[in-house]
Request: fold
Amino acid sequence: MALRIIFCGTPEFALPALRALVAAPDISVEAVITQPDRPRGRGREMAAPPAKELAIDAGLHVFQPEKIRSVSARDFITNVAPNAIVIIAYGQIIPGVLLDIPRLGWINVHASLLPRYRGAAPIQWAIVNGETRTGVTTMRIDAGLDTGPMLEKTEIEIGPDETAPELSKRLAEAGAELIVSTLRKLDRGEVQPQPQDPSLATHARPLKKEDGSVDWNLSAQAIYNRIRGLEPWPGAYAKFRGQLCQLWGRPIEIEREKTPQTPGTISLSASEAFVACADGTSLRLEAVKLEGRKRIAARDFVNGAHLKPGEIFGG
Reply:
């Protein structure tokens, strides 16, 4: 008999897992719970979340409660009576009254090697902090924030130039394979939940606009990590002549015997621009985007700005 589940998820990150579950012959996706349609884009037209679009294409029943803690949501889940509920990036906290409804519990795919990087932005903060390895963890959720017992893990390397969207795509695919494996093993009693060690826990808080502000007193590598990790939002930015300017670039080494420059100082070589950072490093600008304008190549920025000697990017 197929394992009956409800899938609970919303954004693109959840889609590979939903596809894998739908394709599994021994798993039956009875319904998809996702966020309500929301206004999107410049026209603010109502748009369905990605999970809903995929569910409709797959012929699945879709339920979109405004609040998962509502009586209607509890009644819906109770009536479906799933063996397990898979939850991936749903966007709301699950109340305790719902956790015991499925026999196997609510199984989450989290984009880190728990207990590290609990929270809303594990992919972004792993890159910003210069991690070279990360992964996905399946866990049974409890009343805490990513504190439930762990089931299985998959570890992967972070590429030296990999951005948050690129890593997110790879982790989503890894999570899709892992959730199918975890559900099968849970159903057969072949995996034992392992408690997390709270002493090893770190927190990946939600991103804020101000997180993108570049501190030129950091090394060029640390700034590059922030550029990669905060793509596409909030991005890495500094002030230039009073305007916010989003930056893209790569770190380079400079000759240490040269006279050190004030961090943030812009220097030119041919049509290239370099920004002085800490520890004898420099960031080679590749592209910039001034407020209200399109992204342009660094050489076009240099030519158009008519930079003055010693000009500085503000923090």
Observations:
- The radius of gyration is 23 Å.
- Residues 164-188 form the longest helix (25 residues).
